[in-house]
């Protein structure tokens, strides 16, 4: 029996080992996917903050430029992007 | 459950069928599972590249903006060090007169639109079924519409909203007009007499005022000098708006004439339709006076000629009388107004109408106009003075627009009062018809007692036919031109709308804002007018 069982047992054993290997790989794939998602989200939120700061800076610089250069040729239109 | 943006492809690893004739099935399954894993890794890397690409692009744009900001800061730093407070002089005028700083407000539009869809969603969209190809049927349609739009139209809601907005703006504009008219009407009954007098005696008042008290030739012909003085504050737009619906107003105030007796000083809104509507009405009235003979007309004409030259955008409302005639005319004018006013392409010269002529004269004037337009012989020999500005002519022609349309069959000069009532809003003939109007007026009145100072006073009687033919030709051309103009105007009206949510909303807000302004201004003016 042990000999008969051995090949089957060995096979099953081997199979289990393979499955565990595959499981490790798939779980790491899931971790990668998870990481990518969260990286995407956090990156977008930081970029949005950056965007707001940039816009605020741009407006301040516009104002300072206007003050320094004495309101020359200032024609503000409402721009549509 | 959230929408899956990116789906890693081989979803199930071990569900492929095991091929036949394989002994070690477990190994087979393991191998196929590993192969699926590799495919999954492949799709995962594709999506990762996608994600990083988006983030990189955004960060790049910020980098560019940051760079430009940095340059600006550097420039500013240099400039600031160069500032010298002793050199710069800031006068008080500068502080107040300079336009206030206003930063550029950029509105983000089309944020969530077809173009900003992320890539994986686009792919998912394309994987779906397409709508049936109904567009192949659209060439066979009569009304030139997209056949597919009847099945599925992605822009349907936007179009719906846009139409609603445009309609709302139009309604508000009309409301504004009506309110102004109403206000003018309310103030009318008390003002008519005043207006008549003021219009007549303006010149006299001025002449009187020019002298010292001791030297004044006439003590008090009319009490109007007082009225004239009191009406200083009135604005021409009041006149015009009032005159529009008031059949009884005697005279068109010359634009921005200070002594105009408008009771309801509305703020001069730049609304083109408003100006158009009163203009048409005033022109209407103006048509009347032409036919009027009298000295009053002469006086008015004189005044108008002297006063009413300059302000094209504010044609004083022509005030006509003749109850019966005025009634239908007013209606036609109102109808005309309801149509959104006429295109105000022609510069408005207001030729103030003569004082209310006797009714028979009015129809004669109308018929004269019609006759000129329709190339019937003009009874009166007077010719429009060559010096008539085209604007004045245009205005005159406009005044006739409510009268029977120029293309109507020529009416006999004297007798066709019936022509007056059915006035459809004809397009404003370009300019020559007004001269005709003037000529009938002059013809009727003969030479007016006081030769009108400028253009009117110089109406030769001799070259009638030439002028007439020229006028007729011009009228014909004008009619044709007008149609094209109308089309163009309609198109122009459509064009500036654009497909922008922001533009449409801003227009609507502008209309509302001006409306509220005019309302409040009207109220104030009412207080002032007294």
Automatic annotation (TrEMBL), chain A:
It is found in: Cytoplasm, Cytoskeleton. GO terms for cellular component: cytoskeleton; SCAR complex. InterPro entries: BRICK1 (IPR033378). Keywords: Coiled coil, Cytoplasm, Cytoskeleton. Signal peptide: none annotated. The keyword NAD does not apply. GO terms for molecular function: protein-containing complex binding. Belongs to the BRK1 family. This is BRICK1 subunit of SCAR/WAVE actin nucleating complex.
TrEMBL record, chain B:
Residues 467-484 form the WH2 domain. Residues 171-461, 510-530 are annotated as: Disordered. Coiled coil: none annotated. The keyword Phosphoprotein applies. This is Wiskott-Aldrich syndrome protein family member. GO terms for cellular component: cytoskeleton; SCAR complex. The gene is LOC110532908. The keyword Cytoplasm applies. The lineage of its organism: Eukaryota, Metazoa, Chordata, Craniata, Vertebrata. PANTHER family: WASP-1 (PTHR12902), WISKOTT-ALDRICH SYNDROME PROTEIN FAMILY MEMBER (PTHR12902:SF9). GO terms for biological process: actin cytoskeleton organization; positive regulation of Arp2/3 complex-mediated actin nucleation. Residues 231-242 have a biased composition (Polar residues). It comes from the Eukaryota. It comes from Oncorhynchus mykiss (Rainbow trout).
